[in-house]
């Protein structure tokens, strides 16, 4: 005889969600959004699923190329809620709790469309690297920036074929923020750093003090931003403090 256990969970929504997470260990585990859906049921969620959780739903038609995850596991819905919740400085749970009994999810759908349209307007040529980027966050942070889609496309082309750029996905955030860290620029190899170290005699090219190689770091003599390459002739060894100081300028 098979015995099926039924759990009766009482408490507030957060306590119920925490309990569901605790028992979600057997069989095919529910995704985080599937767990949330079990708690924040109501008219709002029913309407939201119409846009984000059905085969051939509107979100798939306009945003499938930009979204990661699986629609049927509620991950498109999760992304959409996260995007709109950020505009109100709320968590996904906080947003769902506040809107749980709304008649419809029209505001959620409108915001999702706004983000997708913003991306398509300024990044006019689709590339596979655009999939899975947190476009909702970038929209909130840069929607008021003066952007030129023609100029952006030209810069994207150059960066895509630049061997120094190892994170092609990071190109989009780099173009919006100007921060090179998103490009994961190619680093000097151990042999290149050793060659530069021996050539310098262990002397930091900035402060002029001697250091063991373990306390030094390879740096671009001519910065990448003005055409410097990660090759032997462009490698210079700096002590850690000097390299940090240079990076912070």
Quick recap:
With 249 residues, the chain is mostly helical.
The secondary structure category is mainly alpha
Average pLDDT: 90
Provide the domain count: 3
Write down the secondary-structure element order.
HHHHHHHHHHHEEH
Shape: elongated
Radius of gyration: 25 Å
* Helix content class: 40-55%
Number of helices: 12
- Strand adjacency order, main sheet: 1-2
The number of E-state strands comes to 2
Largest β-sheet summary: 2 strands, antiparallel
Q: Give the low-pLDDT segments.
A: none
For the record, give the distance between the C-alpha atoms at the N and C termini, rounded to a whole number.
72 Å
Explain what you see:
The chain is mainly alpha-helical and 249 residues long. It folds into three domains: 13-118, no CATH class; 128-183, no CATH class; 190-247, His-Me finger endonuclease fold. 47% of the residues lie in helices and 4% in strands. It contains twelve helices and two strands; from the N terminus they run H-H-H-H-H-H-H-H-H-H-H-E-E-H. It has helices at residues 13-23, 32-39, 43-52, 58-63, 75-86, 92-99, 106-122, 135-142, 149-160, 171-177, 190-200, 240-247; strands at 216-220, 235-239. It has a two-stranded antiparallel ribbon with strand order 1-2. The mean pLDDT is 90.
Features:
two-stranded antiparallel sheet; 4% strand; His-Me finger endonuclease fold; 249 residues; 3 domains; mainly alpha
Produce the secondary structure layout.
Elements: H1 13-23, H2 32-39, H3 43-52, H4 58-63, H5 75-86, H6 92-99, H7 106-122, H8 135-142, H9 149-160, H10 171-177, H11 190-200, E1 216-220, E2 235-239, H12 240-247
Antiparallel strand pairs: 1-2
